[in-house]
Design goal:
Elements: H1 3-12, H2 17-27, H3 34-49, H4 72-80, E1 85-94, E2 104-106, E3 112-116, H5 123-133, E4 135-136, E5 154-161, E6 164-172, E7 186-188, H6 190-198, E8 201-202, H7 208-235, H8 250-253, H9 259-267, H10 273-289, H11 293-321, H12 324-348, H13 363-376, H14 402-415, H15 418-439, H16 448-457, H17 459-480, H18 494-520, H19 524-547, H20 549-571, H21 575-602, E9 610-618, E10 621-628, H22 643-656, E11 667-670, H23 678-692, E12 697-701, H24 704-723, E13 733-740, E14 743-747, H25 758-778, H26 781-807, H27 832-848, H28 865-886
Parallel strand pairs: 3-12, 3-13, 4-7, 7-11, 11-12
Antiparallel strand pairs: 1-2, 1-5, 5-6, 8-10, 9-10, 13-14
Helix pairs in contact: 2-7, 3-7, 3-20, 6-22, 7-20, 7-21, 10-19, 11-18, 11-19, 12-15, 16-17, 17-18, 18-19, 21-22, 23-24, 25-26, 25-28, 26-27, 26-28
């Protein structure tokens, strides 16, 4: 076991069971679905709910899920399963850039493949498709064909993972990106080069142990999002009873969720028959005592204190719901529902196929679907929809045919889709939010008796309360509707105004209470009346609390659940994973940084002081950046290095990412040597060929000088390996693409570059001759002449290749810088007959090829296919004779 793996295992032992199970599944390479994330969120919540608390009614814990912790075996599985990903084929279906529909590139699984072509022949179109599926520093969207903008770009990539070949993935622009092994493929192009230098970037390849932590952090965020939605729903279930939050009720409502509140709630019992009779008789007793002025005034003061206290509580409840933060949250829930509705409608289009009933996917249709589901599954022995061979429609009980069954499958997928689930959540949150607004006692603020009571103490306060009520009604209605919510008055915030009114009301209530106490002390009658009024208030309060005991108990439990949800949310915090990732990654990233120094030197970047440095870890993902040695941190690399040096530094950083990874999946390079001089080009060519010995490397380029370097460097590497007694470098695979009437990206052998071996060139020309025979046989001489003259020209070029590659033994080759004098030994066998045969062949082809004007008296028709074949056979025969002669 590696140090990284043992560190990960030791750290995981301190985590909850469900968290260790997440780590295990991620280590095995599993992709967790939204339903599985929901399950882990439930487990995190259940773990918190199981802790001791003062529940009014303890929730049902349900059956706990079976979790298995991460262990050494799972990490080994990750390593053993890291077979390289190689690209087998890119099939352009339609719509991407100006690539021809149906055109394809097929690659050999090992070594280096060159895809060459002039500007505008489709190279970047192919790499942009790969960038949608692989990983690149510089994200880039595939543009639609400018001449067919309504066609969504689409392509199919066939790939292999180790020995498992023929796997396919279909990419379509606009579709949600899915996780595939192709994301282990890395792409380098000009955009990636720019990002590599612009600032901190993620370490591209990481060991499995670090990747598990990074994936774990991302998974925790997904689970936290689900718990946050649950928390939001619980918060929106909050209810308050301002009229009960007084006197003995304070022990309950001031401590909801605590043992003190639970004890007080349980202590509140229904009035006995005697107490009911006593309560009913108190008004008459108060009336009798009211004959004494002090007693009457004491009762009135106590009653007004209760009214003012209740009104203050209602104002405070309203103020808490209309703070700027609460209003913003409410608007967010309304907009969230609109967005979820739009997404669900878009998803519904997928099931609105030709012939489908109107309004499929709409609200009424969903009600019908859910009703059918409830009907079918009522007995507990059936599921809906049934999709087996004998399935029947729940309405008509007729057997479903294949088409209907497939449609039911589509409907079931739609109803269980992410968009539909998000809509259900968004709608429930919105409904709960509106219910909270509906419960607000806003109308109680404007009751005539209330305003008259407040005006008795402060006429200005009564007027202010009336104005605040009108503003509260307007705000509630606008939040409940679909129109624009007007911003609150910053100079006179509504929530603050209500809070100020509540404070004033409580002050007046306290004054009335004090007044009642003073009056009670003036005589026995007044004291008796005060005690009687207190008894009436206590019995009435107890009666009202007892009547709402279940609802209050639910609110008590809601507070506990809210606390537990917040604790579950804290369990999803990623800071612990980030700290562990930082701790484990520092040594690894140090190796990446050291590797950058090696790569920079190998690529000739030793004239400028650049280095790769560790730049911290965020959410479990390590960061690195290219920096200037011994320079202030605010000086960018791009401001000091030349354009060519920047490109080489970016390539060095790209290769440094691969350090210690153990992943040998495909690398893709799009014009990697742009802006480089010849010295850098040769070094980059060597580095790519060295890398191609251990993985598939794809190079897209229009730079034929660089391609020449690739072949020259390969020859040098072959010699070096031969001298060391090692196998030679794998052959370079060459694909040439061009533009045709249907678009770009067409693979062609008619315009092959000069590195094609002579034997292969002769074979391709033989195929071309066979292809034009039908034109000659049918008498279509116009079309045949055009093709025949082009083939004649190609035969003449083949003679030139024969002279260069065979007769002169490649002593001197066009575009090559070296003269291979050691090959002269094989050239001494040439004689006059050899020279004459070459001269004759080239002269004959020149008469019939395009580009050589014939005399006006020469009206000879082009030679037939047999003549062309004979001329080609002459080269092939000559080639064989020379090879036999020299062997």
């Amino acid at each position: 076991m590696t140090e990284l793996e043992s560190g990960l295992l030791t750290w995981s032992e301190g985590l909850a069971d469900w968290q260790r199970d997440v780590l295990r599944r991620l280590a095995l390479g599993e992709t967790l679905t939204s339903a599985e994330l929901r399950g882990y969120a439930d487990a995190a919540i259940a773990a918190e709910l199981a802790k001791e608390a003062a529940w009014y009614q303890r929730p049902d814990a349900g059956e706990g899920a079976d979790f298995a912790p991460l262990d050494t075996m799972h990490l080994r599985a990750t390593v053993a399963g890291a077979d390289p990903v190689t690209i087998e084929k890119i099939l352009h279906v339609e719509g991407a850039n100006n690539l021809a529909p149906g055109t394809a590139l097929e690659f050999v699984p090992a070594g280096l493949t060159i895809v060459a072509g002039l500007n505008g022949t489709g190279k970047s179109g192919y790499t942009r498709i790969l960038k949608q599926l692989a990983v690149s520093r510089g994200a880039e969207r595939v543009l639609a064909n400018a001449f067919h903008p309504d066609v969504a770009p689409k392509a199919v990539v066939t790939y292999a993972v180790g020995g498992l070949t023929g796997q396919e993935h279909t990419w379509e622009d606009g579709a949600a990106r899915t996780e595939t092994p192709l994301q282990r493929v890395r792409v380098f192009d000009s955009r990636a080069a720019a990002v590599q230098l612009s600032g901190s970037t993620d370490v591209a390849y990481v060991p499995p142990a670090l990747q598990v932590i990074a994936d774990y952090s991302q998974t925790l965020q997904g689970i936290a999002s689900i718990i946050s939605q649950d928390l939001n729903q619980v918060e929106l279930q909050k209810r308050e009873w301002p009229e009960l939050s007084r006197d003995d009720g304070l022990a309950i409502f001031d401590h909801l969720g605590e043992a003190e509140s639970l004890d007080a709630l349980h202590a509140t019992v229904v009035l006995t028959e005697d107490e009911v009779v006593e309560l009913d008789g108190i008004p008459a007793q108060l009336g009798a005592l009211a004959a004494s002025d002090p007693a009457a005034l004491a009762v009135q003061a106590r009653g007004r204190a209760t009214q003012l206290t209740t009104l203050a509580g209602k104002a405070e409840v309203i103020a808490a719901k209309i703070t700027p933060e609460a209003i913003e949250a409410s608007i967010g829930l309304r907009d969230g529902l609109d967005s979820a509705q739009a997404a669900a409608e878009e998803a519904a289009k997928l099931v609105q196929a030709d012939g489908a009933p109107e309004n499929v996917g709409g609200d009424a249709w969903k009600e019908m679907w859910n009703a059918a589901k409830a009907y079918v599954e009522a007995d507990g022995s059936h599921i809906f929809p049934a999709l087996d061979a004998d399935a029947v429609c729940p309405l008509c009980q007729q057997t479903l045919d294949a088409v209907a069954g497939e449609r039911f499958r589509d409907y079931a997928a739609f109803m269980s889709s992410e968009a539909q689930a998000a809509l259900v959540i968004a709608r429930s949150l919105r409904i709960a939010d509106l219910a909270q607004f509906g419960d607000l006692p806003i109308e109680d603020l404007a009751d005539a008796g209330t305003l008259e009571l407040v005006a008795v103490y402060d006429e200005g306060l009564g007027s202010r309360l009336r104005t605040l009520h009108e503003r509260a009604v307007a705000l509630r209605d606008s939040l409940a509707g679909v129109g624009q919510v007007e911003p609150d008055d910053e100079d006179d915030p509504l929530h603050q105004g209500l809070a100020d009114v509540a404070a004033a009301l409580r002050a007046h209530a306290q004054a009335e209470t004090d007044k009642a106490d003073v009056l009670a002390a003036t005589g026995d009658t007044a004291a008796a009346a005060t005690r009687l009024k207190e008894r009436q208030d206590a019995l009435s309060l107890r009666q009202d609390i007892a009547a709402k005991k279940v609802e209050i108990g639910a609110q008590h439990d809601r507070v506990i659940r809210e606390q537990r949800l917040r604790a579950a949310l804290r369990a999803c915090d990623t800071s612990s994973a980030s700290r562990k990732s930082t701790q484990l990654a520092q040594d690894y990233v140090a190796k990446v940084c050291d590797r950058f120094a090696v790569e920079a030197q190998a690529l000739g970047l030793d004239r400028v002081p650049v280095e790769l440095v560790f730049d911290g870890t965020s959410r479990g993902v390590s960061k690195i950046k290219v920096a200037l040695k011994n320079a202030p941190s605010d000086i960018s690399v791009a401001s000091v290095l030349s354009e060519g040096e920047q490109r080489v530094a970016a390539i060095a950083g790209f290769f440094a990412d691969l350090a210690e990874s153990g992943d040998t999946s495909t690398l893709v390079f799009d014009d990697p040597v742009s802006s480089l001089d010849d010295e850098y080009r040769a070094k980059v060519a060597r580095r790519l060929l060295e890398e191609a010995e251990s993985r598939q490397v794809l190079v897209f380029s229009h730079d034929f000088t660089f391609i020449q370097y690739l072949y020259e460097v390969k020859d040098d590497l072959d010699l070096e390996k031969a001298a060391a007694g090692l196998p030679t470098v794998l052959d370079i695979n060459y694909l040439h693409i061009n533009r045709g009437p249907s678009g770009a990206g067409l693979v062609t052998t008619d315009q092959q570059w000069r590195h094609v071996p002579l034997r292969e060139q002769i074979g391709r020309l033989k195929s071309r001759i066979q292809a034009v025979r039908p034109l000659h046989s049918s008498g279509d001489m116009v079309a045949y002449e055009k093709e025949a003259r082009d083939i004649a020209g190609a035969i003449r070029e083949t003679w030139e290749m024969f002279v260069e590659q065979v007769l002169l033994n490649r002593v001197v080759s066009r575009h090559e810088r070296g003269v291979h004098t050691q090959r002269l030994a094989a050239v001494v066998d040439l004689d006059a007959q050899d020279i004459a045969r070459v001269d004759l062949g080239m002269r004959l082809e020149s008469r019939f090829m395009t580009g050589h004007a014939a005399p006006t008296t020469d009206s000879s028709a082009p030679q037939g296919p047999d003549w062309l074949a004979a001329e080609l056979d002459a080269i092939d025969t000559f080639r064989g004779e020379v090879h036999r002669r020299r062997s």
